[in-house]
Design goal:
99 residues; mainly alpha; 3 helices; PIG-Y; transmembrane helix
Length: 99
């Protein structure tokens, strides 16, 4: 006689200790990802805009960021690309809806 797997265990909700560990794990990963995103945004904001407006600093790393002019061009050059990507996303959603 064949033994069947216990299917009742698949539909049993997790215990409270498993659920609290899982939610803590998700909270920590969410906090790490949000913190990394905020840090990246602030670093880019400083490199692209604020470093050109603030007075020169004496630190060599910040001085190299202040003298770099390529990040200033990044915002105006990506604007047309963003517009095209938004249009293509809208077009693909329309085609998917009416397909």
């Amino acid at each position: 006689m064949e033994s069947r797997p216990d299917l009742a265990g698949l539909f049993r909700p997790p215990s409270l200790s498993q659920r609290s560990r899982s939610s803590l794990h998700l909270f920590l990963w969410g906090s790490i990802l949000i913190s990394a995103g905020v840090f990246s945004f602030l670093a880019f904001l400083y490199a692209a805009i604020l470093s050109k407006l603030l007075p020169p600093s004496g630190l060599p790393i910040l001085a190299s960021i202040e003298n770099d002019w390529y990040y200033c061009l990044l915002i105006p050059l990506t604007s047309p690309v963003v517009i095209i990507v938004v249009y293509l996303h809208w077009l693909s959603m329309k085609l998917f809806k009416h397909a």
